[in-house]
Write a structure and sequence with these properties.
elongated; two-stranded antiparallel ribbon; mainly alpha
């Protein structure tokens, strides 16, 4: 009686080889491309929000004033606490939501801009706790990745940092 041995180059080996080649191709994507995508993905919602806070140059919109003075509360330890200095907070948020995304898009001071948006995301989470899954968690993850990895080579940062060396 003769036993047949399965060939070592059957369907399973071909599929494994295809997966290995596909993974190698995906790994060859320059790291700067996803970092650029992260910068844009994080910058856009904050910039759009920042535009809604202004009626004119450094003139807060009535909507922003109302939200920060009347509606927004910090949810801390089960209590809803009014924003301290609400107009100052609204102004800071409005400026941050415009300046930090522009820095991200340019890739200038990327890590610090991302850190600023990460801190803003934490405050937003305390203000609107139910938004964690759809908005705050992805924003925090994107910001944290940019804090850790920087903006990549498709950014102004490498040119600025290169001159300092």
């Amino acid at each position: 009686m003769k036993t047949e041995v399965a060939p070592s180059h059957g369907f399973g080996a071909a599929a494994a080889s295809l997966v290995t080649r596909a993974e190698g191709l995906l790994a060859s994507v320059p790291r700067s491309l996803p970092l650029l995508a992260l910068r844009f993905a994080l910058a856009i919602p904050f910039f759009k929000s920042g535009l809604t806070k202004w009626d004119d140059f450094l003139t807060l919109s009535s909507g922003a004033r109302y939200l920060f003075e009347q509606e927004f509360k910090l949810h801390i330890f089960g209590s809803a606490v009014a924003y301290p200095f609400p107009l100052t907070m609204a102004t800071a948020a409005g400026i941050g939501e415009l300046v930090l995304p522009i820095l991200l898009i340019l890739g200038l001071a990327t890590r610090f801009a991302a850190l600023g948006l990460l801190l803003m995301t934490a405050i937003i989470q305390l203000t609107i706790p139910e938004g964690w899954a759809n908005f705050h968690l992805p924003w925090a993850a994107m910001a944290l990745a940019l804090v850790v990895f920087g903006g990549g080579k498709i950014a102004v940062d490498p040119f600025v940092l290169q001159r300092r060396k």
